[in-house]
Specification:
Blueprint lengths: L18 H7 L1 H4 L4 H14 L3 H28 L4 H4 L7 H6 L5 H7 L3 H5 L26 H25 L3 H26 L14 H4 L1 E3 L11 H8 L5 E3 L2 H4 L6
Parallel strand pairs: 1-2
Amino acid sequence: MFLRNNRMQYTVRVDEPDADFAKLLLEQFGGPNGELAAAMRYFTQGWAATDPARRTMLLDIATEELSHLEMVAQTLGLLLKGSPSEMIDQVEGGYLGDMLDGKHDGYVEMSMALHSSEIALGGGGPRLTDSEGNPWTSAYIDTIGQPVADLHSDIAAEARAKIVYERLINASSDPGVRDTLTFLMTREIAHQKAFEAALASISDRFPPGQLDGDERVGHVYVADSNYPTGDPTGFEFVEANIDWGFELIDDPVSSNGGVDR
């Protein structure tokens, strides 16, 4: 059961309306790296988790992502305040009349920054699309039902979300928006740490799944980049950073990858 608290997790603040930036921010509302996608990813994993502690952690983070979705929605609403979409709901307030009288030239430019569906269907409220108007889809959820694989995906998802927030922060000059998005970005870092901890709690975590694979090819590095060329090789890069004990194969076609068939 969910209980909604009227208090935001963090105070949302926008200093000036900005329909152009609102369009960009939709990426974190209904985009593939947005808050709804994150919540649904962790809910589906949490509901299927057999480990009680990991289940609780996933559902806690999934619920927090819904609170972040609300924060993004409120930010979008503040960014659109004074835009044509809001004026649709405030005809009697004088905004529409002023616009028709030519007193708000900037509204025409602002309206061009929004998708027509945002105005006609959303009525000024946020719609579940990305910044290009593509509708949210469950195809964004890549849960596969194996804890190690899913946690690796979760870590990557939080990293992608962090980078998107970082780019949005750099694209905004509004102090209030930057403060709000910095909070949301930082929570992505915290979630990434939590998923790293959950992954570390699984002792037998490589490779994911139950089958170990064929040892004859499990430690073969296939050099497909015209080895040797005198340039740094992928094999050298791998060997320098982790000791998997790879065997280098520089003629994968004639050698069949080093495996006798």
